[in-house]
Amino acid sequence: MTGRSAWIEDEERAHRHALACDLVAALTLGGKIARAVIEEKLGLPWGKLTEMCRKTTRKRFNKNSGERVESSPSGLEDWEFAWIVGKGYDKGRGVLTDRFVFEFGLGQLIEYVQLSSGAGLTEGREVEPKDKMKETIKAQVNNRHKANKIFIAGLAHVRRGEVPWSNNGRRKKWANASSEERLASFENWFDAIDRLGCHVVNREGWEDWFERANPAGSMEQFFRHWISAWHPGEAPCPPWIWPEVDYWDAHDALDSDDFLDTLILVTESDMPYSAYHRRCVQPECNGGRAQPVAAETEDDQDWEFGRDVTVDDTDCWLAELSTQAATSKVPWQIAFDALPAEKWRSTGQIPISTG
User: Fold this and answer.
1) Element (H or E) spanning 264, and its range?
2) HSE on the CB side for 299, CA within 13 Å?
3) What does DSSP say about strands 263-266 and 199-202: parallel, antiparallel, or unpaired?
4) Does residue 329 contact residue 286 with C-beta atoms inside 8 Å?
5) Residue 201 is inside which H or E element, if any?
6) Domain boundaries, the chain
7) What is the pLDDT of residue 188?
8) Phi, psi dihedrals of residue 147, rounded to the nearest 5°
9) Averaged over 134-161, what is the pLDDT?
């Protein structure tokens, strides 16, 4: 192992350990609930939360072998992090919030844990065996990594003067491909990623959606309810998240850096891909990130609010509605650890918005 790889490994270990500590703090409400209580409630082994937060190498004596054993803290595997978050969420009845799940990009994975455990339907009785649940979560997280490999490879192919994808593995040279062949190759590239549950989207469009998004919903729900969130005939165009392939093809610029740099990979839970979980911090703006509302006056009785409202949500909904009318759009950014901006082209990691 080189010095650089050892440094990267140490950085990754530190990042995982920090997120594990953040998760424990969220589960215990900053220490207000005993760890043992949470472990029993979530069905975790005794001492699991303490082990997750351990900072130093642990030395213990193995009575069976008579040997001294050392173990170093390494945080949680990506699938295990998602599984524990799913256990702690419990559709809003647990200690983890919608915003926590949303900003970590775990919505769809959590939904699976909820359905598999029968949360809210069978009083916590598991519908699927725990081992099967874990294996499914592992498979879904692994699909993210597979999709990223396809995404990065496609970008590299185009920059080397080839089309991004070929179903038979024989990619044409860019100069030898017709406009129709180039478009078909891009569509097949996107489809291969879609089949793994992820999507290639336009960076600016995604950022626009992220600013407006409701943490309790998904990108699909956002666009499905867009029209109903406005007065009839007043709905503006929604954020355009899909790659503008036809536009760039018309300018014979599908292979340009200007176009390729607009593309990012988002997971099944609508957040940009990262090798390990990272938090995209959404700003406190636009009335608690509610769906768009026709902004007139608070006294207007014809307002429509673009999200499902239950009886328990009424007070919160009214407060958001009032705030929405009085709050103007403010600058925002995605805040999380990431590589320098000049590294995006070669790694395909999460972009950082600075405006």
Assistant:
1) strand 263-266
2) 0
3) antiparallel
4) yes
5) strand 199-202
6) 11-55+72-137, 144-347
7) 95
8) -65, -40
9) 95
